[in-house]
């Protein structure tokens, strides 16, 4: 366990192999629909290199809606209670105390060997509750910065399969991104034979 910045904690190897396997299976189902996993199109016309599917609320740049107007007009799958429980356990372990937490959305990103994510803030939520991030599959370089700029100072962290990363408190609106994935570094025993899955649990503050 390592505190990267106040409120930002990296817990390597937090998920068991069984938990990772279960999440991979669930992600495969969620990727099928009702709103399929797809490359999000940005307002600029650019296309994100990661593929994304959401639970509870559908995120598109830069808002959450119940219905995926930009994909197929369907409502995303529900956010399961067991995933909220997992989020509460994650926070308790990362922060060393029980924290009330009612996540109502998850963004599930799949990175192939070339995919990356530029430096950004998670700021479409109307809540300052922590973000819980779970990684499975190939290791990536995760860049965790500051709340003021996309640039330095930042800390580079390798997120490997099973790692937990939490960012809340003074770090909740810090810029962060994924400059690189390291292909072939994941354990196929998770059920993911290539690429990287990342799940972020969030509180939208919407209703
Ligand atoms: O893939 C990651 O580790 C980070 C994903 C992320 O920042 C996001 O979905 O907003
Ligand atoms: Fe993010």
Description:
- This protein is α+β, with helices and mostly antiparallel strands and 207 residues long.
- The protein has a single domain, classed as Alpha-ketoglutarate-dependent dioxygenase AlkB-like (Jelly Rolls, Sandwich).
- It is 15% helix and 35% strand.
- It is built from two helices and 14 strands; from the N terminus they run ββαββββαββββββββ.
- The strands form three sheets. Strands 1-2-12-9-14-7-4-3 form an eight-stranded antiparallel β-sheet, with helices on one face. A four-stranded antiparallel β-sheet has the order 8-13-10-11, with no helix packed on it. The chain has a two-stranded antiparallel ribbon with strand order 5-6.
- Strand 1 (2-5) and strand 2 form a beta hairpin.
- It starts with a strand and ends in a 5-residue tail after the last strand.
- The model has no long low-confidence stretch (mean pLDDT 98).
């Amino acid at each position: 366990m390592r505190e990267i910045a106040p409120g930002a904690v990296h817990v390597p190897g937090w998920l068991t192999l069984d938990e990772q396997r279960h999440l991979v299976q669930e992600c495969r189902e969620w990727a099928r629909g009702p709103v399929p996993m797809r490359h999000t199109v940005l307002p600029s016309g650019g296309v994100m290199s990661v593929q994304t599917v959401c639970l509870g609320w559908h995120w598109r740049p830069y808002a959450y809606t119940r219905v995926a107007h930009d994909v197929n007009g369907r409502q995303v799958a529900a956010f399961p209670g067991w995933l909220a429980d997992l989020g509460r356990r994650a926070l308790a372990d990362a922060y060393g105390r029980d924290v009330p937490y009612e996540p109502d959305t998850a963004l599930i990103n799949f990175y192939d060997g070339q995919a990356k994510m530029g430096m950004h803030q998670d700021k479409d939520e109307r809540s300052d509750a922590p973000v819980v991030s779970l990684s499975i599959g190939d290791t990536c370089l995760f860049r965790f910065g500051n709340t003021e700029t996309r640039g330095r100072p930042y800390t580079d962290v390798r997120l490997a399969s099973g790692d937990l990363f939490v960012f809340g408190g003074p770090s909740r609106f810090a810029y962060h991104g994924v400059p690189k994935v390291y292909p072939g570094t994941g354990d196929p025993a998770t059920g993911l034979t290539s690429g990287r899955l990342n799940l972020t649990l969030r509180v939208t503050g919407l209703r």
